[in-house]
Amino acid sequence: MANPEHVEILKQGAEAWNKWRKVYPEVVPDLAKAYLVGANLCHANLYGAKLSNADLSESKLLEVELSEADLTSANLSNSDLRKAKLTIAYVAMANFKEANLSEAELFGTNLVGAKFNEANLSYANCTGASFLGADLTNAILHGIGLWGTARDNWEIR
Asked: What is the per-residue pLDDT across 32-44, written as a single tens digit (0 to 9) for each?
């Protein structure tokens, strides 16, 4: 369950959140199961945050820092994650339906069983990511970097 203090600070926006992170760099943000639908968190530092089962659908997450975060089973459908950094994040079973992840950094990320139906992954760097069991139905994969990825037998069109 999310730490209510962490949720309250995050709801104040990225600027307030990032200031708080600088003051308390040793704190691991606990936002598990948080309801953050439609949040504007562009440029927020969510490095290493616990966001499992959080609802971030329809959120603005442009250039957000989510490296090493736990987004297991999180809902990010219809969210804007352009240029987001999800390096070495754990995103298994997350929902990215119709999300925009163009130019996102997914280097070494665990995306096992994640849903990317109709998501835009154009020019995303997915080097070393694991897409095993991921659903990429009608996803936009133009220019995606897949070197060294673990994936099922895809038919990419």
From this structure: 999 999 999 999 9
